[in-house]
Amino acid sequence: MDNSKIPQTLPRFSATFDPHTLAEIRRAAATGIYDIRGGGTKRSLPHFDDLLFLGASVSRYPLEGYREKCATDVWLGTRFAKKPIHLKTPITIAGMSFGALSAQAKEALGRGATIAGTSTTTGDGGMTPEERGQSQTLVYQYLPSRYGMNPDDIRKADAIEVVIGQGAKPGGGGMLLGQKISDRVAAMRTLPKGIDQRSACRHPDWTGPDDLEIKIEELREITDWEKPIYVKVGATRPYYDVALAVKSGADVVVLDGMQGGTAATQDVFIEHVGIPILAAIRPAVQALQDLGMHRKVQLIVSGGIRNGADVAKALALGADAVAIGTAALVALGDNDPRWAAEYAKLGTEAGAYDDWHEGRDPAGITTQDPELASRLDPVAAGRRLANYLAVLTLEAQTIARACGKSHLHNLEPEDLVALTIEAAAMARVPLAGTNWIPGQQF
Amino acid sequence: MPVVDLAVTSKRDLNAALHALTADTNETLWHVANPEGAHAIAAGVDVPITVEIDGHAGYYCAGMNQRATVIVNGNAGVGVAENMMSGKVHVKGDASQAAGATAHGGLLVIDGNASARCGISMKGIDIVVKGSIGPMSAFMAQAGNLVVLGNAGEALGDSLYEARLFVRGSVQSLGADCIEKDMRPEHIEILTRLLAEAGVEGVSPQEFRRYGSARGLYNFHVDNASAY
Ligand SMILES: Cc1cc2nc3c(=O)[nH]c(=O)nc-3n(C[C@H](O)[C@H](O)[C@H](O)COP(=O)(O)O)c2cc1C
């Protein structure tokens, strides 16, 4: 028989051992060390895209797009702080460290947030004069490492965020590899230049909710009870974490889902620890409601927020505000196709670049290399961020008006349905076209 | 001389009064009576005054201190002088865990013993403990000097950066990447100065041994994987 006539089986790749998995096995075998990268989860997860708004109908009437007001402002820190924060839009900029980001990028975040009337946040590595100077409202992170922690900067801050965890790596500390420990970064962190720095994952001087309460009291005493105190947790056990944060005296709880970005962590941590933000919001809101604290202690959620629909859905599920990290960096210019040739040289592509820990970012954002960093114009990048924040706000308003709401905070779970059974169960809204919420009696 | 009795005045009023002082104040000596273990006494002070606490202090006494001298005539709770920037804190009794944690500057003197994690994450402070210190002390300590006249507990200086540790007595065990190092003339000088500043007499710097970072974990390496 003529062999060329026999039908051949096509080469078939395994779904379990897919090309990415195979490449990772080879990389691990060659190096003996885990893969470190920046960004958030890359696999597909139940997310806000699995929810839809119902909009107005015969029984609900919408608001007129241009004439009828749909307010967007939010107060944060009304529980105890003498000086709560008032923002024009509920979309805040998440904490990202100077060290992970260039000074120019930090300045651009401050500029963009200020134009948009929202807040930005420091990170693991202290407060730079550039970002304080350009940020009308600046939240100062209080992290386990306490790098650069300084009472003068605390007094300059508009709020304090006690960081317990991050969605990308709940239970993990920061990482900043030697390439990014420049003289300035080293001096701000009191570390030798060029070392691979691992930040602590636990606070050095307190453990557990009872200690946290005393720590928060100390921070309030130092700042004369003026500043709102946030507590940031990675989404893992949101009901209990939120309840304990409230018990510890937080003004605001920041809840970061597993999609949330990071500057650098083990890939295995990013992809396998924590839960998606979609699954975390309702238990968090439930905790606040059970304690009679919903809207009294504000809830900020983050992790994979990309557009105004995501914002509206997060608020409809009960959050008071959201935070963005990755999307803000993209608005500044991260992973921009204009640097395609340089991404190719780094063995990657625009859109997939995640070796942020290496400090060779062609866009000049996740780097401490003076030449690369100088590529980012903080004024122009700040403007792009402000434009993007305006679009998010307008999009969220568009949806809210369609649902007949005169304030974004009037959106509610009743406005939502889910496309998948998973999303219906996690967000506790009915599967579209049914009145079935998995796990609930009716 | 202001005397604030915490049995009648609230701690909030005490701290607010201390924060309201200006550097040229004439009210340079304060006494705090009946502290009864209250937390955050004299936290966040930023003027060159002296505050004497006549009794036991709770958590975070003199936290984030700048320029002030705070004397505890009793024991101090967790995190005494945490994140201190400058000035001096003197505990006449014992101190609980995390004494001097993350502090950037100033001098912390503890006449008695200090519990676990003394000097954890310290970033430039000088600490002199006349008694002994507990386990995991100077964990991830970045800069500054820790002087212990007594003994040190388990895992001293684990994951140490550039802080210098001087112990006169025994060390139960050293943490990862912490090793004994030679005592050079500059270290004798530091010890002489710190012992004098802490009011220690009759103890010679030669009686101490010095411990520091082997700097073996400063950069990731496959062969160190078990230490990460
Ligand atoms: C480059 C980068 C650096 C970050 N640094 C910090 C940090 O220092 N402290 C912190 O609490 N979170 C940090 N995060 C997490 C963000 O605060 C935020 O939780 C996350 O980015 C939100 O998810 P998103 O990126 O999907 O918007 C960082 C994130 C990125 C992308």
Descriptive report:
The complex is a heterodimer of chains A (442) and B (228). Chain A has 442 residues and is an alpha/beta fold. Chain A has helices at 19-31, 103-116, 129-134, 151-156, 183-189, 208-222, 238-247, 267-272, 277-290, 308-316, 326-332, 340-345, 370-373, 378-402, 421-427; strands spanning 36-37, 51-53, 74-76, 85-87, 91-93, 120-121, 138-142, 159-163, 175-176, 197-198, 229-234, 252-256, 265-266, 298-302, 321-324, 416-418. Chain A has one domain (36-323, 375-427): TIM Barrel (Alpha-Beta Barrel). Chain A contains 15 helices and 16 strands. The model of chain A has no long low-confidence stretch (mean pLDDT 95). Chain B is an alpha/beta fold. In chain B, 10% of the residues lie in helices and 22% in strands. Chain B is built from 2 helices and 11 strands; from the N terminus they run βαβββββββββαβ. An 11-stranded mixed beta sheet of chain B has the order 1-2-3-4-5-6-7-8-9-11-10, covered by helices on one side. The N and C termini of chain B lie far apart (53 Å). Chains A and B meet through helix 4 and helix 6 of A and helix 1 of B. Bound molecules: flavin mononucleotide.
Number of domains of chain B: 1
Domain module tally of chain A = 1
Structural class of chain B: alpha/beta
Helix content of chain B: 10-25%
Number of strands of chain B: 11
- Strand order, sheet with most strands of chain A: 5-15-14-12-11-8-7-6
Q: Segments of chain A where pLDDT lies below 50 for 5+ residues?
A: none
Give the N-to-C terminal Cα separation of chain A. 67 Å
- Beta content of chain B comes to 15-25%
CATH architecture of chain A: Alpha-Beta Barrel
